[in-house]
Amino acid sequence: MKLVAIVGTNSDRSTNRKLVQFMANHFQEHASIEVLEIKDIPAFNEPEDKQAPAEMETLSEKILEADGVIISTPEYNHTIPAPLKSVLEWISYTSRALINKPTMVVGASLGTLGSSRAQAHLRQILDAPELKARVMPGNEFLLGHSEQAFDASGQLVFPEKLAELEEDFTEFLTFVDMTNQLVAAHGLNTEKKRQFSWEAAAE
């Protein structure tokens, strides 16, 4: 299975990057996970030609080619970071690459709550008509105290969180299979949904 994992921040010292890098290494026998950065993608600015910057087009292509997506978000002021919101704006305005794409939301934070409010907000955003990702329900991996969660080699050292992550990831692999089979079997108008516009909806 081919997955991509988006580091949902432009911070160079993010523990969310450590989290998805750990997942890519730890689960490599079960799936190929490519870690994608967003820190070099320009802030969203509505282009007249609806063309995204080259960096954004590359990220969209990798999402389109993947069987599923993992998004790891920190929590800034009770929500997701501005760079992640900007990337989602680019996707919704141009490629709409997340439509019907199986998606797992995870998050790490230095505090106790482990980005719970940001994850809830991200799920709401991903349900927008121009994004419409198929987010795995009933699952919330929250890594609190993340500064202490990884050793010098990048290994997750909290045994209970490792067990939880392994269970969640196993469920996600099943969710990816089932979702992609459902979309393929029933056609679910992925391309039609990518043509959605508020202007047409208002007519």
Task: Write up what this structure looks like.
There is one protein chain. The relative contact order is 0.16. It contains 7 helices and 6 strands. The protein starts with a strand and ends with a helix. It has helices at residues 15-26, 54-65, 82-93, 116-126, 159-186, 190-194, 198-201; strands at 2-7, 32-36, 68-72, 102-108, 134-135, 141-143. By secondary structure, the chain is an alpha/beta fold. Helices cover 41% and strands 14% of the residues. The mean pLDDT is 92. Strands 1, 2, 3, 4, 5 and 6 form a 6-stranded parallel sheet that branches. The chain has one domain: Rossmann fold (3-Layer(aba) Sandwich), CATH 3.40.50.
In total, the number of domains comes to 1
Looking at the structure, the CATH topology is: Rossmann fold
| Count of individual helical segments | 7
Order of helices and strands: EHEHEHEHEEHHH
Helical residue percent?
Answer: 40-55%
- The SS-based structural class is alpha/beta
Number of DSSP-assigned strands: 6
CATH class: Alpha Beta
Low-confidence runs: none
Organism: Streptococcus moroccensis
Pfam families: FMN_red
Protein name: NAD(P)H-dependent FMN reductase
